[in-house]
Amino acid sequence: MQKLKILLLAVLVLVLTSTSTGSVDALGLGSVSHPAEAPVLRHEDENQPPEAISDEADEAKVVYLTFADGPDPNWTPQILQILDRYHARATFYMIGRNANSHPELTRMIAERNQTIAVHGYNHLDLAHVDFQTFYLEVNDTAEAILESLKEEPNLESQYGKCLRPPYGSTSEYLYRNASEMDYAVSMWNIDTKDWQQLDPEEILNNVLKGLEPGKVILMHDGGQEREKTVLGLQLVLHELIMRGYEVLPYCTNEGQAIQNP
Ligand SMILES: [Zn+2]
Fold first, then answer.
1. Which of 55, 91, 143, 202 holds its CA 20 to 30 A away from the CA of 98?
2. pLDDT for 191-205, tens place per residue?
3. 93 alpha carbon to ligand 1 midpoint, in Å?
């Protein structure tokens, strides 16, 4: 009797063991691979950007980041480094004479997969100049940019035919002249007001006040001291990524991402 009990127990154990490990095999589905990988706790490296934690990360939450008044040997490389760190992309609207003085910066921007467009050769108010002046301001800037990229022709696709009018000054005449040259006019929705030397936290607040998908953010990588822009940019990118935004260039070789509002 005792032997029978032991035997029954052994059979029971065998049955239980086989059903708990081989159920899928038993259904003829082949060997079982591991179910979903066990979740691994990730320890954030403090120097790395945070992962997106928004529930809406799947939605197309895009904002466009733009810089004007560069390139500048002091500030542009610092800004590029921050963009890299946060996997953010932006468009740099260049002053032609700066591009002419610093072809290496134009190349650096293009090599980092950022895009380049035109701000004007001498930072003139282009809303009220004759067509010849307009043409030279735009065309000479484009030439300075393309000349810088000549050694690496594959980088020329980082340049787009978009114009950010200096001072944001526009007129019907400017739109007509731009379209005559086949340029899109790139305005913005969110002015960080970094040109007023605001503190980094104020720069962040200015972005958050107007933040919505599809907005275009204005910042500056040249023209004056940009320490606060550099610090503010880190706050802005950290927050944008936390909120599930993708940061893309407004102007590319294929044109402007969206029409001006
Ligand atoms: Zn400007």
1. 202
2. 999 999 999 999 999
3. 8
